[in-house]
From TrEMBL:
Protein name: DNA-binding transcriptional regulator, Lrp family
Entry's Gene Ontology BP terms: response to amino acid
SUPFAM superfamilies: Dimeric alpha+beta barrel (SSF54909), Winged helix' DNA-binding domain (SSF46785)
Entry keyword annotation includes Transcription: yes
Annotated PANTHER family: LEUCINE-RESPONSIVE REGULATORY PROTEIN, TRANSCRIPTIONAL REGULATOR AZLB
Transcription recorded as keyword: yes
Lineage per the UniProt record: Bacteria, Pseudomonadati, Pseudomonadota, Alphaproteobacteria, Rhodobacterales
SMART domains assigned: HTH_ASNC (SM00344)
Biological source species: Paracoccus halophilus
Domain HTH asnC-type: 1-67
């Protein structure tokens, strides 16, 4: 993957629905070159697919947070099994540094989030937690990203 592929992927991250013409103008390449590169990235498994982020996605779990967990001893696998059984858990990532796991949580209310956090804190091997609430999403769209154009 070269720099042009990285720029193409960055453009698609901002707007996966961008037309070949839009991508061509943005990257200064022909539509054929853009299409060929996209097909190659798809075939090689770099691009697995395209998705849509819906407003409803945030409304299903309007209260969202990132919880950082420090695990004692060798209890990570047990904690992971317990986390995956909680409906509020949307994703779990291992990490390095002061924290061992980062958990994305989503609930209907702050009270539900508080209950989930209390449950996680009671898990055996969870030594410490820190939670940050996620507020407004700050994501550039096709209209407001640098160099983007309004309309189609």
């Amino acid at each position: 993957m070269d720099e042009t592929d990285k720029k193409l992927i960055a453009c698609l991250r901002h707007n996966a629905r961008a037309s070949l013409s839009e991508l061509s103008l943005t990257l200064g390449l022909s539509r054929t070159t853009i299409r060929t590169r996209m097909e190659r990235l798809e075939r090689s498994g770099v691009i697995l697919g395209y998705s849509v982020v819906l407003h409803e996605d945030t409304m299903v779990s309007p209260v969202r947070g990132l919880t950082f967990l420090r695990i004692e001893g060798r209890g990570t696998d047990r904690v992971l099994r317990k986390l995956t059984g909680l409906p509020a858990v949307q994703a779990v990532h291992s990490t390095n540094g002061a924290w061992d796991l980062i958990v994305t949580l989503g609930t209907e209310t702050l009270e539900e989030l508080d209950l989930v956090l209390a449950e996680i804190r009671r898990f055996e091997h969870v030594a410490n937690t820190e939670t940050n609430l996620m507020l407004a999403a700050k994501r550039a769209t096709g209209r407001d990203r640098p160099g983007g154009r309004a309309g189609r």
